[in-house]
Design goal:
By secondary structure, the protein is mainly alpha-helical. The protein has one domain. The chain has 20 helices and no strands. The longest helix is centred in the last third of the chain and has 29 residues.
Amino acid sequence: MNELTFIILNLIISSAVGVLFQNCGIFICGIIGLVIVTIVIRKCDERLYYAVFAAYIVSIIAMLILYYGYINEFGIPYYIGGSDDLMFENKAKELIENNKYFIFQTINYDMQSANNSKAFVVLLSWIMRICGIFGGYHTIAFRILNINIWISTAILAYKALIDMTHNRYSAKKYIISFLALALFPNAIYISIHVFRDTINSAILFFIYYIWNHKDNIKGIPKVVITLMVTYYAYWLRAENIYLIGFIVIMSIILSIKNLNNKSFFILCIVSLFGIIFLNSMGIWDKVLRTTSFYSTYVFGDMDGLSIYLFKIPLVPYGWILRIVAGLFSPIPTSILKILYIFDSVTVLFNFFIAVGVIFQIFMIPYTLRNIKYLDTLTFTFFIVFCSVVLVTFTFRHFIFIYPFLMIMIARQFIETKKKYKYLWFWIMFCLMVLLLSIYILVRLIIT
């Protein structure tokens, strides 16, 4: 498939969805998303267009099933009948009513529950304004844009994998790796909502990408782009500034060739001052407060063993348990509800999310084997992973780690001999059976 054919087919799908909902704004957001994808996919193997279009079709179908399923289950097309997604749209309408156009206009503007998401609400208000020119905003409009942003992130991960492995494997293996990420169930599920997490994931990976794989962006342009993106990312989610800072610093450190003892000593001193600076800003107290807030927040979505996990203090042993649990998360207990998947759309999607997590669990050996590299990818994955499992642990934030995780899995899986793949499969299969048996037994005891 060539680029022109891909564009035409993509526009046909977007226009069809627009006609279905009788809303021109949906088509406009489809065009905006297509522009982003087209820019990112440039210079890629033409065979990738087939995979990207397939991922787009699957995501659109999932979005429509979720939309109508939510209406049937809750009466409105929003998560659990109205959560952050509905709140974000209401806050965006509020900005429009109060003539707030830019982030700096909202700095001292109290947005209550959206105070740590101001950049996202501003973006959403602009989407609403643009759609308003063409007949009005529909919640499907942003979701189509969100799908394209996730697919673009998966394309960047595909390009990073090729660069990292020096394009020495078949195109088929790289395309399968792309599909594994683009079609990962939890990522699709998050992206077909009006959530900020897909954009957040895209930003974190974009920063990693331009500092490690984009050789034609150097010097001042790279710094300017990073600062601009960081400004937006901070107002999207304040904690992003620390993650971006870590990614940039690690990228610089690990790019230094022939790192001698003197350079290493200087880096240690700089790192020490960095820790002191963060401490002076109260970052550690902020982390503890955020951890406490999210631990309370996620209790509402938990039952059984998960609650016991979060009742354990992080120090001295809780952090170990959370890291281990994070490798198996979101906990795939919904796989046991296979007989009830047609009872509600929530059960249906939770089941498919569980299927994706089981795949993730079977890939744990390949994830852990990346420790031997000690490169920017591994360090970035580790710090982002820890920021999720130790601080928030909400299912939506796991999308932050997926681009890094899938590259790590792919580069190890591709290089592993078939006999070892079989060995790891049966080891993980036995572990899964054991854990499932323990889970069922403990559930029977505590209920």
